[in-house]
Design goal:
CATH superfamily of the largest domain: Type I PLP-dependent aspartate aminotransferase-like (Major domain)
Largest sheet: 7 strands, mixed
Shape: globular
Number of domains: 2
Number of helices: 15
Strand content: 5-15%
Distance between the termini: 55 Å
CATH architecture of the largest domain: 3-Layer(aba) Sandwich
Helix content: 25-40%
CATH class of the largest domain: Alpha Beta
Structural class: alpha/beta
Radius of gyration: 21 Å
Order of helices and strands: HHHEHEHEHEHEHEEHHHEHEHEEHEH
Strand order of the largest sheet: 1-7-6-5-4-2-3
Bound molecules: pyridoxal-5'-phosphate
Length: 408
Amino acid sequence: MNTKNNNTSFDTLCIHGGFEMEQHHAHQTPIYASSTFIFDSAQHAVDLFTGKEHGYIYGRFGNPTIEQTENKIAALETFLLNNGNGEPLQAKAILHASGMAAFTTLFLSQLKQGDTILSHYSLYGGTQEMMDKVLPLCGVNIVLVDCKDINVLEEELKTNKSIQLIHLETPANPTIQCVDIAAICKLARQYNIKVSVDNTFATPYLQQPFKYGADFIIHSTTKFLNGHGTAIGGVLIGTDVELMNTKVTKHHRLLGGNSNAFDAFLLNNGIKTLALRMDRHCSNAQKTAEFLAAHPKVAFVNYLGLATHPDYLIAKQQMKNGGALLSFELKGGLEAGVSFLNKVQLCTHAVSLGTCDTLISHPASTTHTGVARELRLKSGITDGLIRMSVGLENVEDIIRDIENAIHY
Ligand SMILES: *Cc1c(COP(=O)(O)O)cnc(C)c1O
């Protein structure tokens, strides 16, 4: 199927995008479990290495299972989008061993000693720690500001000439805060600065950051794209295909955070049901959030589908729906939260998100233990906050489980 065909629907592209039939006509993209690939001739080897001919060389660089999955993801992130000249927007995706590996390739290929990343202060714990603890060792500085305030952002860009990249996570983990991608990209362009967006929570089904001018998109494919919790993975997608094919590919190959055929196979199959799953995730999350918001023992609920969420309007502007993630705090704070976590039976108490089943976790004691308490509180991650990734179970069963666990 021609995945560049803009007449295809998104849900159809989830299934057929990226597929290329192999020589035996396998109906599913096979798992190419081979660490190296055979050259036809000395010239063939030269042509593959110089990029004159497309093909496979060595497993760390890629293989057909990985490439078909990359092409599917690139097709979804550029679905129905045009470049400035009215032509279909092109993008290249590079699959990685994890979301963190994709970040490593992005940051190390785009930044050098003395450069600064500007970001919002509500981030995935691992991203935050990487910025705090690893990147400074490479001489890359981090500035975290309130990216919801465009004036604060502009002031920072005006005064700090070392900023080379703005990294956004929207919606952000686990407070479900959103920032205005279009407004920030517009400002970044005036200062000739690139913008990367972590689109893990929304997926391209709910939000396409390229539509609003982002240069790079990152996913932890471990989450909704895989959807079944079967493999860790990450992807880096960029619209500057030339840059992706040269500098970024070089970093991907040399840093060694490559994906593998089996994980790519699981991911490729998972994405086939992405649209269906996201619709159900969103409707289940909406009903669960409404239930929690109306419960007398619940202090507050963060969910983008509730008009009470401070970023409800930004979300409406750039997302198709509220997503699967919500967080809340019980009136009894930390103690009530711990009791709740110990009492749920259907909901699974585990970190991660985006799987078929409902996952709940306590960020302060798990994903964000590495983040200083002051910074954690500043980004809205209170001691008793509970995060839920609402799954695909029957929503009445989810709500019953929560209701039983709240009665401590
Ligand atoms: C999980 C996650 C990551 C990190 O991805 P891994 O696959 O665990 O390396 C990054 N960003 C967000 C928003 C995540 O949820």
